[in-house]
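pasting for ref. prot 1 ->
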Amino acid sequence: TPEQLFPRIEIEETENKEPAKQNKKDAKKGEKKSAQKTEKSDEDNSEISFEDFSKIHLRVVKVLDAEPVPNTEKLLRLTVDLGGEKREIVSGIAKHYAPNDLIGKNVVMVINLKPAKIRGIVSHGMVLAASNGNDMELITSDLPIGSEVK
């Protein structure tokens, strides 16, 4: 039988409760949510099938331009060349890279990621980086633009 995640709350019950009791209940809800987040992060380490992985298209791209995204400390707007096609990407690497240091670099990018609007800018992909928590390094390549990463 399915396990009940949240207790059923009747609307009349909620309206009649004292504010102090509501605050205690809200605190308990916060504890449950943080416990669920912990469980979810454990699930993120689950295995995927080869078929799922093969859906990801990785290519070598050249960074043509890089600039900070206004009113943010972490984001850079990158213009990249896929080999005949230019795209804009928003990446959270500004604390680790100066925009001018990126121009001309060949980096690895997920090219078939669904576009996402980040701070009003549509990002058409994602550059890959390795991180140990403190340091971050983009995955680079000396292969020609458009080379497939397998």
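and prot 2 ->
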Amino acid sequence: MKENTHRIDEKLDRINDMVNQTALDTELHHDTLVDSIVDDIRSLMNKRKNIRNMFVVTHVEHGKLTSTDSFVCKADEIHFTDTAKDEQERSITIKTTQD
């Protein structure tokens, strides 16, 4: 009985080792694949002509326009979301209401 228990334990250990190795191999493959995809996307996005659209989703008054202008400014483009001159100079959006 003791010998059978020992054999079962050995088999379970081998199975456990195989499962762990498979998980490690899968994780390494996944990390390599993700790194490769990220590198590919970065190389494509480094070409400005490839950038078409972007979107920002937040609650009201949480800096969507300011953030968007900051991103565009970093890309050496003009401020396009704030149309008034004082908004562009101050890099803020000024909302007004009309009666």
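Residues 20 and 26 are 10 Å apart (CA to CA).
The longest helix spans residues 2-45.
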